[in-house]
Amino acid sequence: MKFTILTLFPEIVRAYFEASVMKRAVAAGLIEYELVNIRDYAYDRHRKCDDEVFGGGAGMLLKPEPLDRALEAAGAPSVRTIFVTPSGRLFNQRMAQDFSREERLNILCGRYEGVDQRIIDTRVTDEVSIGDYVLSSGEVAAMVVVDAIYRLRPGVISGESLEEESFASGLLEYPQYTRPAVYDTMQVPDVLTSGNHAQIARWRLKASVAKTLAYRPELLSKDNLPSEVDSILREVIDEGGWHEPGTSDPGRTGQK
Ligand code: ADE
After folding, report:
1. Which of 103, 207, 209, 242 has the smallest set of CB atoms within 10 Å of its CB?
2. Could you tell me the CATH number of the domain that includes residue 114?
3. pLDDT at 28 exceeding the cut of 50
4. Does residue 38 belong to any structural domain of this protein?
């Protein structure tokens, strides 16, 4: 899969592709990437890429001409082209799975107040927001989107890890522990060191349900959940819900 990132600040993005799991995926030929500096497509003397907003208002917009040329060279809109923007569709795991099936993806990073709408109308296929907050940098949002997508490609991460993580089952992931079994008087739940796989699976599902109830209750109304969830949910509620970190009060299931 090839990512083409269109940005005014390729140096922000480069480090991400040159470290850790992504670096290995690139070295293994699973992922390719190209960083396109939009300014290379601005042909005036000052290589100007932004301008004031028609109708007034604060901030500057990315001008259409350099963007149009850069996106045309990147094959947009025949190549699926994501514009990361706080006014886009809210990104989620299902969208990441959908994008991960493409062999090529363009990602356009906004700066300033945004992008001339004519470019969105003609070159962009998907407007994506990573959350209900505003970042100063589209590059950071683009990396979030790339990260969620590329790790779903075959060979990048083990299938088992993908199946167990949050959202794969529709629930938040259960708590996990490693050695030592007792740390500073805090003990790992006995069941996890018991070797009883059925009990461990049950404990994990129950912990997932309890955590989801506390932090993301809206996820529990989805109809794709494991069939045991209903009865476990009743049990969890009877027992007083999730223990928030930093408190031993089992009754606290709301916000901090
Ligand atoms: N650019 C600035 N804020 C953003 C957000 N929340 N999502 C995507 N792109 C953005």
Report:
1. 103
2. 3.40.1280.10
3. yes
4. yes
Nearest CA to ligand 1 atom 7: 129
Q: Give the residue-averaged pLDDT of 114-138.
A: 96
Cα–Cα distances in angstroms (integers) from residue 122 to residues 58, 69, 78, 83, in the given order: 25, 12, 11, 12
pLDDT confidence of residue 246: 73
Q: Is 198 in the pocket of ligand 1 (CB under 6 A)?
A: no
d(CA 159, CA 182): 31
Q: Report yes or no on 71 lying in a domain.
A: yes
146 CA to centre of ligand 1 in angstroms: 14
Give yes or no for residue 36 CB within 6 A of ligand 1. Answer: no
pLDDT of residue 134: 94
Take residue 53 and report the two structure tokens written for it: 């907003």
Mean pLDDT of the chain: 93
* Minimum-distance ligand 1 atom for the alpha carbon of 85: 9
Q: What's the confidence (pLDDT) of residue 247?
A: 67
The answer to whether the CB of 169 is under 6 A from ligand 1 is: no
Q: Is the CB of 145 under 6 A from ligand 1?
A: no
Instruction: Read off the CATH number of the domain in which 208 is found.
Output: 1.10.1270.20
Ligand 1 neighbour 7 (Cβ under 6 A): no
Residue 250 belongs to a domain: no
In a domain, 246, yes or no: no
Confidence of residue 254 (pLDDT cuts 50, 70, 90): very low
Kindly state the tokens that stand for 25: 């995926």
How many domains does the chain fold into?
2
Separation of CA 160 and ligand 1 centre (Å): 31
